[in-house]
Write a structure and sequence with these properties.
There is one protein chain. It is built from 7 helices and 14 strands. By secondary structure, it is of the alpha+beta class. It has a single domain, classed as 4-Layer Sandwich (Deoxyribonuclease I, Chain A). Helix 4 links the parallel strand 7 and strand 8. It is globular and about 55 Å long. The N terminus is likely disordered.
Length: 297
């Protein structure tokens, strides 16, 4: 009897968790050259890094990109190792949001925020918002992916960020019932921010069914916007602006900073090391329980 019980346990254990899923969010700062140093060189290097990431057995399954505002950069990033791409390709006035994936992406959509800073703020001349897609992941079934970019981290924009988050929550709740979802992006608020945002302290009320590894698994002092970055002002306060939230269907295994290494600027007459962006990327590794798997339709 004891042998039979042990055998049954062994048979069931591999199915306790159906799949591991890794998601990375990264604000790549691909804006017009007048506002963005070494944009083309950084985009070329990012393409190389994405190709390497896509080939790693434990590489990110999905990449959520923000500030891919320049059309030719977005076009380049479609051919950097990830076979699945969500890009609404609306020229240089695009939302700047892309989703790259190893697995099929379908039923994609987008929405531009109705609330944004007024002119002459640069935020009034761009199309910030959010995009989404369903993903069909082997062993995990169908999950929803959301990628968003909120208004700049300024004290006078705090209420606008809150309203944008309300817009996002409303649409997400329309699309997603009790099904697995992952939200990622540049929230422009979080631990250590220059502009402390009361909305961040209540993020759990906006998305009560989510797990956030900022609190769950990450030690204090892990940031994605730091003065050590070659494009960030040296005296600025280190902040974590970039986040991933996963629904209750997932367990958060770990979270960590990625795409933070500097590289040598090509064809420079002297040694010049620069980062890929003014942000670092943020990756989370998740696992979804068998009973939470939504079968493909």
């Amino acid at each position: 009897m004891r042998y039979l019980f042990g055998l049954l346990l062994l048979v069931q254990l591999p199915f306790a968790f159906a799949a591991k899923i890794s998601v990375t969010t990264f604000n790549i700062w691909a804006v017009p050259l007048i506002f963005s140093d070494y944009r083309d060189e950084r985009a070329n290097q990012l393409c190389l890094e994405l190709r390497k990431e896509s080939k790693r057995p434990n590489g990110s399954d999905f990449i959520l990109l923000q500030e891919a505002w320049v059309a030719d950069v977005r076009e380049r990033l479609k051919f950097c190792g990830y076979s699945e791409v969500v890009d609404f390709n609306e020229g240089d006035s695009d939302s700047g949001l892309m989703i790259l994936g190893k697995y099929p992406l379908f039923q994609a959509g987008k929405q531009t925020f109705e609330h944004y800073p007024s002119f002459p703020s640069g935020e009034s001349m761009i199309s910030k918002g959010f995009v989404w897609a369903k993903a069909r992941v082997p062993g995990a079934g169908v999950i929803w992916l959301f990628n968003l970019h909120l208004a700049e981290n300024r004290p006078d924009y705090a209420e606008i960020r809150r309203k944008q988050l309300e817009e996002f929550r409303h649409k997400k709740n329309q699309l997603v019932a009790d099904t697995p979802f992952i939200i990622g992006g540049d929230f422009n608020m979080g631990p250590g921010t220059v502009s402390p945002d009361p909305t961040w302290s209540t993020i759990g009320k906006f998305f009560p069914s989510t797990k956030n590894s900022v609190e769950a698994t990450v030690p204090r002092g892990v940031y994605t916007f730091v003065p050590e970055n070659s494009f960030v002002e040296k005296g600025i306060k280190a902040s974590k602006l970039d986040h991933i939230l996963a629904s209750k269907h997932f367990n958060v295994i770990a979270g960590r900073v990625v795409f933070n290494e500097k590289f040598q600027l090509p064809d420079a007459s002297e040694k010049i090391l620069i980062n890929l962006s003014d942000h670092y990327g943020w990756r989370e590794d998740l696992e979804i329980a068998t009973q939470n798997v939504i079968p493909p339709r």
